[in-house]
Amino acid sequence: MIALRIGNGYDIHRLVGDRPLILGGVTIAHHLGLDGHSDADVLTHALMDALLGALSLGDIGHYFPPSDAQWRGADSLKLLAQVNQLIIERGWRINNLDNVIVAEQPKLKPHIQAMKENLAKVLAIDPDLIGIKATTNERLGPTGREEGIAAYSVALLVKEG
Ligand SMILES: Nc1ccn([C@@H]2O[C@H](COP(=O)(O)O)[C@@H](O)[C@H]2O)c(=O)n1
Ligand SMILES: C[C@@]1(CO)OP(=O)(O)OP(=O)(O)OC[C@H]1O
């Protein structure tokens, strides 16, 4: 018997002048970066929420509360490794992941493969199981005005036997 569980995640972080831009663990040269208590890696945050959502385990704020100083400046890939552990402990594996980053600037296409490889390494899966797309918001709304970058993620988990 095969069991499937699907989850979705969303996050948005504000763009500011004095922070690095980190997406999927890749530091991208840009005049603005994402603000947050952690490294503000919005893609990895949306992905963690999708994975937790698939197993009805709550959200990242439950495991890594922004009020807790230990997560200040946290490397989100390290948090993702902890989320992956929760999945493995429960006997699930990742079937595939799909993600959309909404960013007016910079061009993300040249960095997508590196993001996939970073995430795949942490999750111990093939990079081809991870979809990552980038889109502008056609200059509409907060992402379109370059006030922030948002990400949406979908995760499909599978358990056999
Ligand atoms: N930050 C971004 C946004 C988009 N792209 C790539 O450009 C294509 C066209 O984007 P539209 O929003 O105009 O549809 C998109 O499909 C991406 O390939 C990007 O690299 N970085
Ligand atoms: C991982 C955390 C830890 O503070 O990161 P933040 O940078 O606060 O980002 P947010 O997506 O607002 O909330 C998730 C938090 O749990």
Compact description:
The chain has 161 residues and is of the alpha+beta class.
Q: Which helices and strands occur, and which strands form pairs?
A:
Blueprint: E1 2-16, E2 21-23, E3 26-28, E4 33-34, H1 42-54, H2 60-63, H3 76-89, E5 93-102, H4 112-123, E6 130-135, H5 141-144, E7 148-160
Parallel strand pairs: 5-6
Antiparallel strand pairs: 1-4, 1-7, 2-3, 5-7
Helix pairs in contact: 1-3, 3-4
Distinctive features:
binds the ligand Nc1ccn([C@@H]2O[C@H](COP(=O)(O)O)[C@@H](O)[C@H]2O)c(=O)n1; alpha+beta; 5-stranded mixed beta sheet; binds 2C-methyl-D-erythritol 2,4-cyclodiphosphate; 161 residues; 60s Ribosomal Protein L30, Chain: A; MECDP_synthase_sf; globular
How would you describe the overall organization of this protein?
- The structure is a single chain.
- The protein has 161 residues and is of the alpha+beta class.
- It has a single domain, classed as 2-C-methyl-D-erythritol 2,4-cyclodiphosphate synthase (60s Ribosomal Protein L30, Chain: A).
- It contains 5 helices and 7 strands, in the order ββββαααβαβαβ.
- The strands form 2 sheets. A 5-stranded mixed beta sheet has the order 4-1-7-5-6. A two-stranded antiparallel ribbon has the order 2-3.
- α4 links the parallel β5 (93-102) and β6.
- The longest helix has 14 residues, at 76-89.
- It is globular.
- The mean pLDDT is 98.
- The structure holds ligand L45E5XJ5 and 2C-methyl-D-erythritol 2,4-cyclodiphosphate.
- The site of the ligand Nc1ccn([C@@H]2O[C@H](COP(=O)(O)O)[C@@H](O)[C@H]2O)c(=O)n1 has 7 residues, from β6.
- Pfam families: YgbB.
- It is an enzyme of class 4 (lyase).
- Pathway: Isoprenoid biosynthesis; isopentenyl diphosphate biosynthesis via DXP pathway; isopentenyl diphosphate from 1-deoxy-D-xylulose 5-phosphate: step 4/6.
- This is 2-C-methyl-D-erythritol 2,4-cyclodiphosphate synthase.
- Homotrimer.
